[in-house]
């Protein structure tokens, strides 16, 4: 497989995964804001912090109003991570590797892109006409985005050979997903409660619940745990090795994909990306949630992100540049 | 509104004779279209367009507003070539390809045709398509032009003529295949009833032709594209996908020890055959244009040593120079001892003094084209131009007569075409695709390009042309 193609497959999947995560973040936050009364502080800024794009946001928008945050994360073409930009780039990557993917994958992605592009146009026209408004059916749009991402995954699973292209797709998808899960968990760090007395309050629980929903983990969490508890939630999203959005699950998948890409069976030497992933996976397996909280959840999540970046850099170095 | 009102007088129309009766080959199609009615036809037409949009079958236009991705306008009324006409077109194209290939072999080796004074040698040496670096070259199996797209037009009397040969990187075959898929969805009832010759196996013919270029068993084959911003990028990836081969850009390739390798996730991998969709002079900055950013250093030397096969061979451009085009009937006669089966369009060479005078005096009645122009650029259509444009163009010709040819304005044939909610007559040409491998294969049909503007004779997609599915019956 060409290095350039591997890189494009990897990024195509990262962008799709990112778009899916963003659509869930925004939707959950939107729903949450509808549940809250006016005395509760603004809930939209933490979302921007979560994505790591606060500086860019602050440069362009004066206030973290719902409309501004939504526009920034959804349709802003100057935000390289907005849903619209993710889709544009995913599709551009797909265009450069069309001969490696199936026509049905391309069709799903192309139609998806056209949908987002067209919706964006309507949104822009509508805000121009009616001022800043959320009158368009945002939830419907975000839900279509999620479904389209999922049908892209489904289509990928069902229509291309599970060979190198496939494994690079998984690598991109799970690296991005692990990163986004750390950011979801970290969101709670940025959400300020009105006062310390509110810890454990309804509002606090509501926030933790929406965080679970942002990771699409609410239902699976409920099957395993009986109540909303921060420690349990963190344990579930970091260390549960059967839930597809937990950190450990993502790393497992990456490790497996790397083993297949490197072709251990063909007797090729191991490489640094593979080694780093294996070492890290073993470390995660030996962790428990108590030690994580002892260290401090926010600091621990920072460490994970650094670890993921290092693995990512090794992948780039080993496979994409030569 | 409908087909009954259609009129195409004083011209050769593909569907209707001058008396207004449908030609035999169109009988069924005409009846069917009438029974469907206008509303249904428009409905099917827009659903066909939606399908093309979903499939992302687009090309890129460069203009003031930056680059724009467009769908090639597609018309649902097919162009039909009756089988008896096709038989002769097929023969004529094979004859032409064989002769042009012998010509290329000769030009780059013994140059007998020049010594025998059939063609003046200065015409060859001054052709921009002639690459002196290819002198003495022996391509695998002596084949130079593996893939050809020859443009055919009908004159006022309905006779086919060759308008030009495209021997370097002819585009459009992907539209032929995609148009056909869309047409099968749009008019299944026509396909059930008529015996339309299929085209879907073109990529298999192309692949086996490419395999024929090497003795390596199970060769690594790649289509070489200038990249995603090239206007024909869609076609490059389409062909690679349909053939199941690699699609590479210059930066994916590297030459070591005069062998060509591509950069893969498992290291370098040798490439045996390359179908290149990049111009000759951009292929190798160490042999041709030094400023080429698309090229691969050393690839020409690797080719000369027989370590990689290239399709089409470098240097073929000399044979589709529009001046040399005018000699093709003589070329056919010289190498094959036959008369051309498909005639050329009469052509004036501005490098000849008497022709030049005629062209300058009659520019308002002629089409004048640059010898190496393509895509409808570098030309003037006399009757459609202003006095000033004619004067300006005359200066261009006088400054470089070798670079210009002129032809009478052909009244290209027309086909009924759906224009918003009416059926109107529009001019068309035809580009069949020919592969030269073990044998010469002519794809039945080809790309019918249609000039969508009323009265326009320019069919190029870069100039707003569209396309139609082409049916060979029988």
Automatic annotation (TrEMBL), chain A:
Concerning InterPro entries, the annotation shows: ATP-dep_Glu-Cys_Ligase-2 (IPR051680), DUF403 (IPR007296)
Q: Which organism is it from?
A: Leptospira bouyouniensis
Enumerate the transmembrane spans. none
Q: Using the record's annotation, list all stretches that form the DUF403 domain.
A: 1-320
Instruction: Give the protein's recorded name.
Output: Alpha-E domain-containing protein
From TrEMBL, chain B:
Which SUPFAM superfamilies does the protein's record reference? Glutathione synthetase ATP-binding domain-like
Matches recorded under Pfam families:
CP_ATPgrasp_2
The segment(s) forming the Circularly permuted ATP-grasp type domain are: 78-451
Residue span of the signal peptide, if any?
none
Superkingdom of the organism of origin: Bacteria
InterPro entries membership: ATP-dep_Glu-Cys_Ligase-2, CP_ATPgrasp_2, UCP005522
State what protein this is by name. Answer: Circularly permuted type 2 ATP-grasp protein
**Source organism per UniProt:** Leptospira bouyouniensis
């Amino acid at each position: 497989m060409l290095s350039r193609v591997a890189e494009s497959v990897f990024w195509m999947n990262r962008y799709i995964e990112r778009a899916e995560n963003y659509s869930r973040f925004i939707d959950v936050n939107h729903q949450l804001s509808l549940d809250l009364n006016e005395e509760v502080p603004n809930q939209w800024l933490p979302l921007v912090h979560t994505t790591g794009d606060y500086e860019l946001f602050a440069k362009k928008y004066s206030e973290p109003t719902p409309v501004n945050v939504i526009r920034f994360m959804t349709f802003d073409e100057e935000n390289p991570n907005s849903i619209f930009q993710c889709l544009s780039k995913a599709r551009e990557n797909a265009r450069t590797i069309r001969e490696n993917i199936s026509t049905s994958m391309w069709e799903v992605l192309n139609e998806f892109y056209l949908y987002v592009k067209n919706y964006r146009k309507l949104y822009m026209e509508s805000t121009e006409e009616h001022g800043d408004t959320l009158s368009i059916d945002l939830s419907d749009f975000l839900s279509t985005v999620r479904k389209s991402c999922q049908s892209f995954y489904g289509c990928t699973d069902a229509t291309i050979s599970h060979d190198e292209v496939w494994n690079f797709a998984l690598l991109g998808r799970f690296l991005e997903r692990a990163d986004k899960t750390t950011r979801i968990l970290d969101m709670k760090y940025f959400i300020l409660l009105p006062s310390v007395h509110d810890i454990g309050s309804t509002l606090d629980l509501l926030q933790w619940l929406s965080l679970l929903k942002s990771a699409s983990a609410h239902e699976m969490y409920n099957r395993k745990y009986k109540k909303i508890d921060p420690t349990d939630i963190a344990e579930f999203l970091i260390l549960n090795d059967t839930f597809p959005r937990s950190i450990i699950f993502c790393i497992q998948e990456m490790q497996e994909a790397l083993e297949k890409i490197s072709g251990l069976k063909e007797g090729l030497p191991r490489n640094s990306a593979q080694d780093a992933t294996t070492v890290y996976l073993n470390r995660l397996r030996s962790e428990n949630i108590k030690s994580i909280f002892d260290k401090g959840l926010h600091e621990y999540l920072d460490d994970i992100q650094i670890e993921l970046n290092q693995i990512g850099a090794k992948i780039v170095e080993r496979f994409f540049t030569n | 509104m409908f087909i009954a009102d259609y009129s195409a007088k004083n011209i050769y129309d593909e569907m209707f004779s001058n008396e207004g009766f449908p030609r035999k080959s169109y009988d069924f199609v005409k009846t069917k279209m009438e029974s469907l009615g206008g509303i249904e036809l428009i409905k099917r037409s827009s659903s066909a367009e939606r399908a093309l949009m979903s499939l992302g079958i687009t090309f890129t236009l460069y203009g003031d507003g930056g680059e724009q991705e467009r769908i090639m306008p597609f018309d649902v009324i097919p162009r039909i070539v009756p089988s008896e006409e096709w038989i002769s077109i097929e023969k004529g194209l094979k004859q032409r390809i064989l002769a042009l290939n012998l010509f290329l072999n000769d030009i780059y080796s013994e140059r007998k045709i020049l010594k025998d004074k059939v063609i003046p040698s200065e015409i060859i040496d001054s052709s921009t398509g002639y690459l002196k670096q290819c002198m003495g070259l022996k391509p695998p199996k002596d084949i130079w032009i593996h893939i050809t797209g020859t443009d055919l037009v009908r004159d006022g009397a309905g006779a086919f003529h060759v308008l030009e040969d495209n021997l370097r990187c002819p585009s459009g075959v992907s539209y032929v295949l995609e148009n056909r898929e869309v047409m099968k969805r749009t008019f299944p009832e026509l396909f059930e009833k008529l015996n339309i010759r299929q085209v879907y196996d073109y990529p298999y013919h192309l692949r086996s032709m490419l395999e024929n270029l090497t003795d390596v068993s199970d060769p690594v084959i790649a289509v070489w594209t200038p990249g995603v911003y090239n206007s024909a990028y869609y076609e490059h990836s389409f062909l690679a996908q349909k053939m199941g081969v690699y699609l590479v850009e210059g930066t994916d390739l590297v030459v070591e020890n005069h062998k060509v390798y591509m950069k893969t996730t498992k290291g370098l991998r040798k490439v045996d055959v390359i179908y290149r969709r990049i111009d000759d002079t951009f292929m190798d900055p160490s042999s041709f244009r030094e400023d080429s950013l698309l090229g691969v250093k050393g690839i020409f030397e690797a080719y000369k040593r027989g370590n990689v096969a290239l399709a089409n061979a470098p240097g073929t451009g000399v044979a589709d120079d529009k001046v040399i085009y005018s000699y093709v009937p003589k070329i056919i006669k010289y190498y094959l001892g036959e008369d051309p089966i498909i005639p050329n369009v009469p052509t004036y060479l501005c490098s000849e003094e008497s022709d030049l005078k005629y062209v300058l005096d009659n520019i308002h009645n002629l089409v004048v084209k640059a010898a190496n122009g393509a895509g409808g650029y570098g030309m003037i259509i006399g009757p459609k131009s202003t006095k000033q444009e004619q004067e300006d163009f005359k200066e261009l010709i006088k400054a470089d007569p070798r670079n210009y040819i002129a032809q009478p304005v052909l009244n290209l044939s027309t086909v009924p075409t759906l224009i918003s909610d009416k059926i109107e007559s529009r001019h068309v040409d035809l580009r069949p695709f020919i592969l030269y491998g073990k044998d010469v294969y002519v794809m039945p049909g080809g790309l019918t390009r249609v000039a969508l503007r009323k009265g326009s004779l320019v069919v190029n997609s870069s100039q707003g042309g569209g396309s139609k599915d082409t049916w060979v019956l029988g």
